[in-house]
Design goal:
- The protein has eight helices and no strands.
- The protein is mostly helical.
- It has a single domain, classed as Tetratricopeptide repeat domain (Serine Threonine Protein Phosphatase 5, Tetratricopeptide repeat), CATH 1.25.40.10.
- Helix 2 runs antiparallel to helix 3, helix 6 (107-119) packs antiparallel against helix 7 and helix 6 (107-119) crosses helix 8.
- The longest helix has 20 residues, at 33-52.
């Protein structure tokens, strides 16, 4: 009974705190407030471009790169996926999506994206693929053949 009273007493405080609390500052904690503010302004600018022209893949790509700098890899993943759906030969988008996936520990998927970027000729992807994807290499390469 006492627990119910305490719960209902603090429920509005908890709900209010959920609405106003932002986790963005915790993604890339090495950024200064000025850098974070500058990157967030860039995100807002790119959001405007994307809202006005949903086929502007350069804006999606740039926004994905900015999300990576902020440490918001879950959002970067979606932007790079959009670019890849539009242009499946964009090696840098595959590479960046692999980086974002690796932050989620989607290791197989990240390695698969690195393999695709490597196949498209991106040298950095080849180096990272060889360094980090030994466990998945045989499976990925057998699926492609």
């Amino acid at each position: 009974m006492l627990m119910r009273i305490i719960f209902f007493l603090f429920l509005p405080v908890f709900l209010f705190a959920q609405e106003t609390f932002s986790v963005d500052p915790f993604f890339n904690r090495q950024l200064t407030l000025y850098e974070r503010d500058s990157l967030n302004k860039r995100i807002n600018y790119l959001n405007t471009i994307v809202n006005n022209d949903s086929l502007n893949m350069t804006a999606y790509f740039e926004r994905g790169c900015t999300y990576i700098l902020l440490g918001m890899h879950h959002k970067a993943y979606y932007d790079f996926s959009k670019v890849i759906r539009h242009d499946s030969t964009n090696a840098v988008a595959f590479y960046n999506r692999a980086i974002s996936r690796a932050k989620y520990t989607y290791n197989y998927d990240a390695c698969f994206d690195l393999f695709k970027a490597k196949k498209l000729g991106l040298q950095q992807a080849e180096w990272l693929y060889l360094q980090k994807c030994g466990y998945y290499k045989t499976k990925i390469e057998s699926e492609i053949k």
